[in-house]
Specification:
Layout (H helix, E strand, L loop, with lengths): L2 H9 L19 H10 L8 E5 L4 H14 L4 E4 L11 E3 L2 E2 L2 H20 L9 H15 L4 E5 L16 E4 L7 H4 L3 H8 L9 E3 L4 H14 L3 E3 H4 E7 L5 E7 L5 E4 L7 H18 L6 H9 L6 E6 L3 E5 L4 H14 L5 E5 L7 H8 L5 E6 L8 H8 L6 E6 H11 L5 E5 L2 H19 L1
Parallel strand pairs: 1-5, 1-6, 2-5, 6-7, 7-8, 13-17, 14-15, 14-17, 15-16
Antiparallel strand pairs: 2-3, 3-4, 9-10, 10-11, 12-13
Helix pairs in contact: 1-4, 2-4, 2-5, 3-10, 3-11, 4-5, 7-8, 12-13
Length: 447
């Protein structure tokens, strides 16, 4: 099967997030992925790994940690989700996306095994999109002989397909409200799902949490029997703001007295916490025999690239992409705008999916915008632009409804002055779609 056919086939499979209710989401379990992994020879056990869960910051934390390990000389594998433009983004080796030919080859082999297992009634149903891609990533990492795998949880943790891992350490980033229909409607319930990735004797790095979430994580760690490193207690940090929304910090590890200077290559104050998560993970790995120098930590954090998270596409007018789709992430973007764009006209292109806390997100973001353009990403899970305006326009001082996301960006660019700033946010689907459209516009302009 060639690459295009493989991607088309994957898109026909059931998507976990299609389940709209807690009851419908009960199909989540680890049975299919375990059967698949066993048939593949447990590729997930062919390399040491770190497993990273959380509501916000887990992708950036994964990217920081992978970059640190790569700069320390390890051959790395990085598995993240979702992708912005191409599914290949989900699997990276030494910072490079999997090639189309390798993707097709691995998928063809996986599909043969799935059909065999279905024929022998070893699988209850065809594995979902995410189960297949996760199995592919684990198999690819083994075939590529990675020396360390960094794996981001897809949704929740306890019943996520990635949770067949036996990691050397886990990380739980900041927990907030998101995917409540799947994970529960209280912070305690959500934290319990995330803490489902904890494993006996594998240390867990815990980012600063609200009290309810922290209590659940610590109780689970005690129950499982794993050491806990809380970043808020393990380090002292002195922050310094830099131009254009970047930060650096002098970080002192309290247990050793060792000092590190970190300057994340990603803008936003919140990225300091994500970098600190990765630093804590790197230090714990060092204590467990992995050779990671202070230089690898600083250089890895400084050179991390993570598209779609306060990513600047151009200047005059500035265009920023951020997939903020829950209240916590929206607060971070709002803080970035308030601290760096005072006195400038802000255009907000906003689209969202049906299961998101639109009113809360809008309440965080819209007061900073002079003009809001309601639009919709190209997915069946999107809220229509007119409906989005009905729900959230009361937060906007001025708004327009343009259903086509591409037309929304074209209009904002046509009307924005050079000193204005355009923020595209509310959904990673929207961010990926308009990132692709912007690139196409640039290619046309270049010719």
């Amino acid at each position: 099967m060639n690459y295009d056919a493989a991607v088309r086939y994957l898109l026909t499979l059931g998507r976990e997030l299609a389940a709209p209710t807690q009851a419908a989401a009960a199909k989540f379990d680890l049975e299919n992925i375990t059967v698949l992994a066993e048939r593949l020879g447990r590729p997930d056990r062919a390399y040491p790994s770190a497993h990273i869960a959380g509501t916000n910051g887990k992708g950036s934390t994964s990217a920081f940690l992978e970059s640190i390990l790569r700069h320390a000389g390890f051959r790395t594998g990085l598995y993240t989700s979702p992708h912005l433009e191409r599914i290949n983004e989900r699997m990276r080796f030494d910072g490079r996306e999997i090639e189309d030919e390798s993707f097709a080859r691995i998928f063809t082999r996986l599909l043969e095994l799935v059909e065999e297992l279905l024929g022998r009634h070893r699988l209850r149903a065809h594995p979902t999109y995410f189960e297949c891609v996760t199995a592919m990533a684990f198999e690819c990492f083994a075939r590529e002989r990675v020396e360390f795998g960094v794996v981001e949880v897809g949704l929740g943790g306890r019943l996520d397909a990635t949770n067949i891992l036996s990691p050397v350490l886990t990380v739980i980033t900041r927990i907030d409200f998101d995917h409540e229909n799947f994970l529960g409607h209280s912070l305690r319930e959500i934290a319990s799902e995330k803490a489902g990735i904890l494993k006996p004797e594998a240390p867990v790095i815990v980012a600063a949490q609200r009290p309810q979430a922290r209590e659940v994580i610590l109780a689970r760690a005690a129950q499982v029997g794993c050491p806990v490193i809380e970043t808020s207690q393990a380090f002292e940090t002195k922050e310094q703001p830099l131009p254009n929304g970047f930060f650096r910090a002098l970080v002192k590890e309290i247990s050793s007295g060792d000092a590190f200077e970190i300057a994340p290559g990603l803008p936003g104050r919140f990225q300091l916490q994500n970098a600190l998560n990765a630093l804590a993970a790197a230090r714990e790995l060092s204590r467990r025999g992995f050779r990671i120098s202070a230089g690898a930590i600083s250089e890895g954090i400084a050179t991390t690239v993570w598209p779609g998270r306060l990513e600047k596409l151009q200047s005059n007018p500035d265009i920023y992409l951020d997939g903020a789709h829950n209240p916590g992430a929206a607060r971070e973007v709002a803080q970035f705008v308030a601290q760096n764009f005072a006195g400038r006209k802000i255009w907000l292109i906003y689209g969202a999916l049906r299961d998101k806390a639109v009113d809360e997100v809008a309440g965080q973001l819209f007061p900073h915008a002079a003009e809001v353009i309601f639009t919709e990403p190209r997915t069946s899970r999107a809220i229509s632009a007119p409906r989005l305006a009905e729900i959230a326009s009361h937060h906007a001082s001025s708004f327009t409804v343009i259903s086509s996301a591409e037309q929304a960006l074209d209009q904002a660019l046509a009307e924005a002055a050079p000193g204005d700033a355009i923020f595209i946010t509310g959904s990673l689907y929207l961010v990926g779609q308009l990132r692709h459209h912007w690139k196409q516009r640039e290619q046309v302009a270049a010719h």
